[in-house]
Amino acid sequence: MRVLRLLLTILAATALYAEGFVRGVVLDPDDRPVEGARVRILAPSGSALAEGRTSSEGAFEIAARARGTYSIVADHRGFARLQRAVDLPSAGVLELRLALAGVESEITVTAARGLVGLSEAAEAMVEARDREGFLARPMTTVGHAVEASPGILLQQTSAGQVSPFLRGLTGYQVLNLVDGIRFNNSTFRSGPNQYLAFFEPSQVQRIETALGPSSSQYGSDSLGGTIQVITREAPFGLSQRVEAHGDWSVFGATADASAGSDAHLSLGTARWSWLGGASGRRHSDLRAGRGADSRHVFRRFFGWSGAEIGRLQDTGFSQWGLNTRFALRPRPNEILSLWYQQSGQADSRNYKDLWGGLGGLQSALEPQNLHFAYARYERLNLGRLDTLSGTFSANVQGDGSRRQSLRQVRTEITCRCHELNSQRYVSNVAPRRHSRQQKGGHDQQRQVVHGNIGIAQRIDDYQQRDHGCQCVS
Description:
Blueprint lengths: L1 H18 L1 E7 L10 E5 L5 E6 L5 E5 L4 E8 L6 E7 L5 E4 L9 E2 L8 E2 L7 E5 H6 L15 E7 L2 E6 L7 E5 L2 E2 L21 E8 L3 H4 L6 E7 L11 E11 L4 E11 L3 E12 L13 H6 L14 E12 L5 E13 L15 E3 L3 E15 L2 E15 L2 E14 L3 E11 L2 E8 L3 E8 L20 E2 L1
Parallel strand pairs: 1-7, 13-16
Antiparallel strand pairs: 1-4, 2-3, 2-5, 5-6, 8-9, 10-15, 11-12, 13-14, 15-16, 17-18, 18-19, 19-20, 20-21, 21-23, 22-25, 23-24, 24-27, 25-26, 25-29, 27-28
């Protein structure tokens, strides 16, 4: 009889697990139930496995046929987003206590590949920034999300581009990930590069940075650390009825006379979801502090230290972006995700080559565009495996520049009023690089170079006109 009872208990437990219900309650800081809070269970890749809403008693019950460590997320208007790690199938009733807006806990999926956990429990130093923080402080580029973080330094020579240094390393010594997919490719420059700025800020839901080497988890390039960009999700519905959600935001700033807007629309049922969005913004020339620029070309060439220049010429740029996501749950333990994004910059110029120091005639960064897409299939509880996933991705980038600089020659022009050196004008058009990266079971990379053109123009005739001064060479 004892053996029979044991067998019946095991069968009952197996049936309960097959049913796969996750139960819990959501409370506010005063232990009162929170009604209407949205509770989701996310895979380490960020895909939503299941979701539900709390009742008037703050209770929730979500069907999730999964085992292993996942993220459970609870959010409600007026409260900070709560995200914590949970082991499934969980025992007992989960108690999720929401804090008031402004206080939140951090979960990392970057510090350990394929796993989720608390940031403070990770061996590597981890920083995480969510979309709520992006809206509170609009960013010029996505790279500015990690600004002022411990161990991270930003190098910026153009208003529309930024290169993060993680523990003193940058370029292809820092690994960039997008939803767990490698964004680095063989055409990345070894020095500081701007490729993280290809992401339009409205396309990003969360950014995580892990300091220190993690090449054993993600492969080469992760010497200084890893930056993971988690894109926006498409929320599922709670039933077979189509639910529609949307958001629209605008921003403006006085420092660079900037303004922009983005809008997103999502549709979904309990089985499928879709998200579409578009964004655009314009940043004008940046106003220098107290109207002075210590690196201005007038200071370099003429020693003019008291120049009141107001705004920094040629620091303005425009950026736009499109993105869409489709997710499908063929079965309760399967999920298929499709993501595509496109973004581009216009009128971006390298300020350090112009008025910011070198005094060049032009230093245009064009083209600057990105096409990135991936398809991912995930299967939970496949035999002895907790999760099995396969990913295919395509990464197409356009990166080019056009420079026309000044170079000193020995010819000297002497004027009766003053003396200055003549200049030779050299114009170079850098090659445009397009790279494509595909992922199945391995990486395939291809680089196509369009228009490797070098143009040199020399001006030998000089005229100096300064209040009627006559110049003699």
